[in-house]
Design brief:
alpha+beta; 3 helices; Helix-turn-helix domain-containing protein; 3 strands; about 15% strand
């Protein structure tokens, strides 16, 4: 799934777009532990692109 046009750190809207889900669903799944845990970077909550890519690969089995 590697897309080198994506930034290394993704905002919730970017994660939602990649996964084909809404922002609220991103937050619900992150809070319930079903998505990788986001990090704070300069006051902004973001996800590491590599962790989201790994998560998707693991879904594929």
């Amino acid at each position: 799934m590697t897309d080198n046009t994506l930034p290394l750190l993704l905002r919730d809207t970017q994660v939602a777009h990649l996964l084909g889900i809404g922002r609220t669903t991103v937050w619900n799944r992150a809070n319930s532990g079903k998505l990788p845990k986001p990090i704070k970077w300069e006051g902004v909550t973001v996800w590491r692109r590599t962790e989201i890519e790994k998560f998707v690969e693991e879904l594929a089995g």
